[in-house]
Amino acid sequence: MTGAVILGVGGSLPARVVTNDDLSARLDTSDEWIRTRTGIRTRRWVEPGTSTSDLAVDAGARALRSAELSTVDAVIVATTTPGRRCPAVGPEVASRLGMIGVPAHDVSAVCTGFLYGLANAVGLIASGAARTVLLIAAETFSTILDPADRGTAVIFGDGAGAVVVGAGEPGGIGPCVLGSDGTGADLIQIPAGEDYFRMHGTEVFRQAVKRMSDVALDALARTGLGPDDVDHLVPHQANQRISDGVARRMGLPESKVLGNVATVGNTAAASIPVLLAEAAADGRIKLGDRVLTVAFGGGLTWGAGTLVWPDVTADFGILGER
Prior knowledge:
This protein is α/β, with parallel strands linked by helices. The chain is built from ten helices and 14 strands. The protein has a single domain, classed as Thiolase/Chalcone synthase (Peroxisomal Thiolase, Chain A, domain 1, 3-Layer(aba) Sandwich), CATH 3.40.47. A hairpin with an 8-residue loop joins strand 9 (188-189) and strand 10 (198-199). It is globular, with a radius of gyration of 18 Å. The model has no long low-confidence stretch (mean pLDDT 95).
């Protein structure tokens, strides 16, 4: 069976930085309360008029430039905040990247969206339907947050990350192990007829630590690896306490856990590729490193997979700045 590898990686963040003090000025909270419960100091939010597709196009263009490609055989966009209920944002993003006629679709799995999209991309390549796929995860969660809900308003940020996945020798991208449990659908949701995102934080925390650590160990086992073989754990950046809990449950030392939740917040589906792009750009991830990715999100959904980091130059930056 044809394997899949990462050919390029890109990431894009909005320019606007929102601090804990900015939020404390209008919410019953404080910098200390936010930091001790989430690990977040700042997050980035889009300015009015900036859309999810704007971030997706920028991250996608950066990933294509990283891969030294101008087009691909398929485009996948993972998002919970597409801007329109219909149609999907994928075709718009593909056309804005100059790929009119290329098949494009969305994936909706909330914070697990990137890994669900990665499984789709690998499947297209394994089946022979595509040789190259641009996978983008992009979110503007600031547009669906209740400004009076300190339980969610302090956590989420906006951003986009992208990878170009291509056919290659087996082993670059390991099996993507996915799962879901619809009985917990009300824990993370936008209720019908409402505009704002709702989350039951305490139960989500408990479920996230267990589901993420279990599925991460499953993904390692299916690859014939154990925790000691991992160079870097790249968890969905939900909350620093969740990342710490997953690492402890897996027996991984803090030194192997990568994160950026302190500076960008929880960027939902975009959090893993944004972190991959940032860590590759600043040298934390290097050629040949074995990376374990894992996420948990609404649905409920969860997933994990391994990567052997390729010889790529990441393109990571601020929207509108090249």
